[in-house]
Amino acid sequence: MKHLLTAATMVLGLSITMGQIPARAEADAPESSVSVAPSVGVQEGPNPLQQWIDSHLPAPTKMLPRASRPLAAPSDLPQELIALWNGVQSAPTGDPLFDTWPADLARYAPGDILEWRDVTASAKPTMLLLNLTSISRATLLKFRTTNSAGEPSIGTATLVLPLKAWTEPGSQPVLVNAQAINALNKRCTPGYVLSHGMEVPTGNDFTPSPTAWAIEHGYALIIPDHEGPLMAYSEPAVAGHNLLDSIRAVRNFAPDQFGESRFASTGYSGGAVASHAAAMLVQEYAPELLPYFAGASFGGLVTDYRRFAHAFDGSYISAFLLTTVLALGREHPEILGLMNHAAQWVATSPVKDICSGSFGALGIMPIPVDTMATIDKSLDSESAEAIFQHLSMNGRKSGVPLFIYHGINDPWIPVPEAEQLWREQCALGVAATKNIVGGEHLAAYVSSYGTTMDWLDQRLRGVPATGTCGATPGGR
Fold it and tell me: Which listed residue, 66, 128, 203, 438, has the most CB atoms within 10 A of its CB?
C-alpha cells in the first residue's frame, strides 16, 4: 500500500508539473516482477522521464486482491503478460455461476444455456428498491457467448417477467435493457445485484427507468451483463455479442413463450455501447435473430474513441479514461504491455474492483495517459491506432431500425458524432430516427425518455419503423 500511495502521489505531481509522461512496462508474477517489452510495431521508446519513473518505482510483487485466471484466457496472450493479465482481473465473486467456465465451452453454440437459477426471492426486493417496480419472476441465465477475439466465452443475463400476464395477440414482446454498468467489478453487474442484493454501492439503471416502463407495459425484460465475464467496460464486440446471445439464451430457455417474440434493445451512455453494437453486429453474428429483433435505441454514445481519448487526456475526467483503458486491457492484453510500474500498481490494486458509484470520484486526478504508459505519445502509437480501429463500428450497417438520441449540450460527446452516425445509417438504407434534445449528458436522457419509450413501444408492437432520413439536414 505504501508503494501504491507513493505511485499515485508521484504520477499526480509529475502530470501537473511536467505534462505527458510515459514509461517502460514490466508485468508482475504473483511473487516477483517479470520484464515486459513494448508491443510489436511501436517505434517510439521511453523518454528520460518515463525511464526515471520505472527506475525509481519498483514493479508490484504482490497483487491484492489476487484473482484466479479464467479458463478462457486470450489464446494469443504472451507468456510474459500472463501474471499481469491475471492481476488486473476482477476478483472472483464467490458465486460459481459467475466465476467458473465449463472446460468444454467450445462445444456449445453461442446462446446455449450453460446454467440457470431462479433468483426471484432476491430480485423482488432489489427491483422494488432500485426501480420501485414489482415483478413476478426473475431467472438468471448463464450462456455461451463470444469474446472480442472470436473465442468462446461465458455470458450472464437476467430474464424478468411482469406481474400481469400477456393477454394481447401474439407472443409476449421483450425489451432488452442494456444498463450503464460502468464498472470493473463482477459484483457490480445487474445479474449479481439482482441475485445477491446490493453488496456494493452501485446503481446501473437510469431514472426514469426502462425496466419499470417494460414491467408496467406487461413486456418481459432481459437485463444483460454486457461487459462480459472480464468486465471489459466499453468493448463493443463483447457488449454486442453478449446482448445478442442473451436474446438467443432466452429463446432457448423458453421457446414456447419467447420463440416468436419481438425483441428491442435500449441503452444510454455505457449501455448504449451494447445496444448500438448489437444492431451493428446482428447481421453477421446472429442473422437468425433478424426477423425478431425489431429495433435498437441508444443515446449518449461515443462513436469515435480516438477523438474522445485525445480530447480528455489529462483532463478532469482523465482518470475515467484511464479506468476505461484498464478495462479494455482485459480483452486486449497488448495494452498491458504498455503499462509502466505506476500503472501496474494501480491496475492490480482495489481500483480494479470499483463500481459505477466510484468512477466519478476518480476524476479529481488529472493524470495524462502517458504518465502510465511506456512510450512517448502513446495515444498516437501504432498500438493505440490498432485498438481504435478494432473498437470502431463506423462503416457498418445496422441490421435493425435505429433510434439515435443525444443532448445538444453534451460536454463529453459532441452532437456531430450522433448526427454523423444517423446520416451514415440513412445512407446505408437503415430506417434511422434522430432525436437531438436539450440538456447535457445526463439531462438529455430524461429529455428524450418519453419519445424513446414511445419508439420502442411501437417496435415491440410490430409497427414498422419509417425513420427520419428524409428530414431537413440539421433538423431534429
Answer: 203
- The grid coordinates of residue 366 equal 488529472
What whole-number distance in Å separates Cα of residue 474 and Cα of residue 149?
38
- Short-list 246, 249, 259, 248, CA closest to 170: 259
> Please, are residues 186 and 276 in contact by the beta-carbon 8 Å criterion?
no
**Cell numbers for 270:** 455505457
- Radius of gyration (C-alpha) of the chain in whole angstroms: 22
Helix, strand or coil, per DSSP, at residue 332: coil
Contact 245, 174 (CB under 8 A): no
Instruction: Give me the residues paired with residue 248 across strands.
Output: none
293-299 β-sheet, strand order: 113-118, 135-146, 152-162, 220-224, 174-178, 263-268, 293-299, 402-407, 432-437
**DSSP state for residue 103 in the 8-state scheme:** T
CATH architecture for the domain at 104-301+401-460: 3-Layer(aba) Sandwich (3.40)
Identify each DSSP E strand in 311-428 by its residue range.
402-407
Q: In this predicted structure, which of 47-51, 182-186, 415-419 has the lowest mean pLDDT?
A: 47-51
Rounded Cα distance, 190 and 390, in Å: 27
Q: What is the pLDDT of residues 326-368, one digit of tens each?
A: 999 999 998 998 999 889 988 998 889 988 755 555 555 688 9
- Reported residue count of the chain is 476
Q: Is 277 exposed, middle or buried (0-12, 13-18, 19+ CB in 10 A)?
A: buried
Q: Are β-strands 220-224 and 174-178 bridged in parallel, bridged antiparallel, or unpaired?
A: parallel
Q: What is the pLDDT of residues 432-466, one digit of tens each?
A: 999 999 999 999 999 999 999 999 999 999 999 99
Sign of CA dihedral 373, 323, 195, 159: negative
Q: What is the pTM of this model?
A: 0.89
- Phi-psi category of 295—alpha, beta or left, where left has phi over 0 and alpha has psi -120 to 50? left
Strand 263-268 versus strand 293-299 pairing type: parallel
Alpha carbons 208 and 206: distance in angstroms, whole number: 6
Interatomic CA distance for residues 376 and 311, integer angstroms? 17
**Reduced to 3 states, what is the DSSP secondary structure of residue 216?**
helix
Q: H or E segment at 456?
A: helix 441-460
Which cell goes with 90? 476482477
Domain spans, the chain? 2-91+316-375, 104-301+401-460
As given in the structure block, the three cell numbers for residue 121 are 426471492
Is residue 340 within 8 A of residue 50, CB to CB? The reply is: yes
Q: Which of 412, 450, 242, 249 is nearest to 320 (CA)?
A: 412
Please answer whether residues 393 and 401 qualify as being in contact, where contact means their C-beta atoms are separated by less than 8 angstroms: no
